[in-house]
């Protein structure tokens, strides 16, 4: 073989796909050696699902009203916070990543992609199972399950993206939670139930338009209230919820998740 006159040396010995395969394999080995991570992402949500389901058991059979919406809001919030116990692991993995990427073993993007896909997949399984358990114990009608489950999972990914984003540049769990808290508080307050859109100051109304929790509560409330007749319509109107914003809500939430992943 004749060597090239001007050989090009790559920064990384292994191509990107090989980096991903090895990182996925290492992640699988770590889960096999340390099942605590599997417990945090799958088993713990099942336990919380049974607990929350028992707390709100049968609320779907009761008369539709504010208590019903409060239970939905708490369910969305609690499932959204499933990622909090994983913050220490993400910070530790990031420290190892800095050392290994400095040696050109793999790229930062390969690490983020491999970690996000494996963690998100397991978290999705845990969040979905928890939501299904709660939904069954609450005795909500089965016809409302697709809308409710869809928005719960979508908001879970939004919360998960927040925690992973701030874990990417903070030095400790305390710092990550501290930086994430203002965004979480604003998102949870401006959901149409805690802070009603019609009663909010004019200079803060725009927050509702970028709040995934607001779109989730709005879509789920309108869906469930359809069985309550005129009483349900009164509650929807009092909270300022409007129909026809589902697609807008999905687009806003997906864009926010994407922006957080880019910052990560």
Structure description:
The protein has 264 residues and is mainly alpha-helical. Helix content is 69%, strand content 0%. The chain has ten helices and no strands. 32% of the residues are buried. The mean pLDDT is 85.
Shape: globular
Mean pLDDT: 85
Radius of gyration: 22 Å
What order do the SSEs take from the amino end to the carboxyl end, as H and E?
HHHHHHHHHH
- Helix count from the secondary structure assignment: 10
* Terminal residue distance: 44 Å
In short:
This protein is an all-alpha fold and 264 residues long. The chain is 69% helix and 0% strand. The model has no long low-confidence stretch (mean pLDDT 85).
């Amino acid at each position: 073989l004749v060597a090239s006159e001007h050989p090009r040396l790559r920064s990384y010995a292994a191509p990107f796909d090989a980096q991903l395969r090895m990182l996925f394999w290492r992640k699988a080995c770590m889960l096999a050696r340390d099942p605590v991570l599997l417990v945090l992402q799958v088993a713990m949500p099942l336990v919380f699902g049974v607990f929350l389901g028992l707390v709100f058991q049968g609320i779907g059979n009761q008369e539709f009203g504010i208590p019903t919406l409060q239970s939905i809001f708490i369910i969305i919030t609690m499932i959204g916070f499933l990622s909090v116990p994983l913050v220490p692991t993400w910070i530790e993995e990031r420290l190892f990543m800095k050392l290994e990427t400095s040696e050109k073993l793999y790229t930062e993007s390969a690490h983020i992609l491999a970690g996000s896909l494996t963690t998100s997949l397991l978290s999705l399984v845990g969040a979905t199972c928890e939501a299904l358990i709660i939904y069954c114990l609450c005795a909500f009608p089965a016809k409302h399950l697709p809308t409710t489950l869809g928005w719960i999972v979508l908001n879970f990914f939004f919360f998960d993206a927040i925690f992973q984003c701030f874990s990417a540049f903070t030095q400790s769990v305390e710092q990550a939670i501290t930086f994430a808290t203002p965004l979480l508080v604003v998102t949870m307050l401006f959901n149409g139930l805690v802070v009603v859109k019609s009663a909010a100051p004019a200079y803060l109304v725009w927050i509702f338009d970028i709040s995934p929790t607001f779109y989730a509560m709005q879509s789920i409330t309108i869906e469930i209230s359809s069985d309550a007749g005129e009483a349900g319509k009164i509650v929807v109107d009092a909270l300022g919820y409007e129909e026809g914003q589902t697609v807008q809500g999905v687009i806003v939430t997906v864009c926010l998740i994407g922006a957080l992943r880019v910052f990560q």
